[in-house]
Design goal:
The protein is of the alpha+beta class. It has one domain: Alpha-Beta Plaits. Strands 1, 2, 3, 4 and 5 form a five-stranded antiparallel sheet that branches. Strand 3 and strand 4 form a beta hairpin. Helix 2 runs parallel beside helix 3.
Length: 144
């Protein structure tokens, strides 16, 4: 298989901590922007096996929504990352994050997968889902 060039969007979330806004804490917009800067720096500077970062675009404005469950404002700072992956498995490992929103396949125009490539792809997806579930369970355990 040839290398894959993709563009993904991650939205990094900033939530205000209860009680801190009145005591000099940061706004949700500031938290989202700082998290975006930090994560983009990590993506830019820490190599990921099989993935080459071509471009990181942080020019989109921070946007906010109202969380009806918590009754608080949540802000998101989007970042678009264009990258080249050696394989579909590497691309999946790179994109399977909580912040993942969209993906665009830039090159090649068409992909044909063999039987063994589809099996490896499905296995990688399963592994990433299990890792993500474990991550969420740990977060919930720490939240209680």
């Amino acid at each position: 298989m040839t290398k894959l060039q993709m563009r993904v969007r991650f939205d990094f979330m900033g939530k205000s901590k209860s009680g801190r806004l009145l005591w000099g804490g940061k706004s949700p917009e500031q938290l989202a922007e700082e998290l975006r800067q930090h994560k983009a720096s990590l993506i830019r500077n820490i190599p990921v096996q099989g993935v080459h970062i071509d471009d990181i675009d942080m020019s989109q404005d921070v946007y906010s929504i109202y969380d009806e469950i918590t009754g608080k404002q949540i802000c998101f700072a989007p970042v678009f990352i264009t990258f080249t992956a050696s394989s579909m498995e590497d691309a999946i490992r790179f994109t399977m994050k909580e912040e993942f929103r969209t993906v665009e396949l830039i090159e090649p125009e068409e992909i044909t997968l063999s039987r063994s490539e589809i099996e490896k792809l499905l296995l990688r997806i399963s592994e990433e889902l299990i890792n993500y579930r474990d991550y969420i369970e740990k977060r919930l355990d720490n939240w209680k």
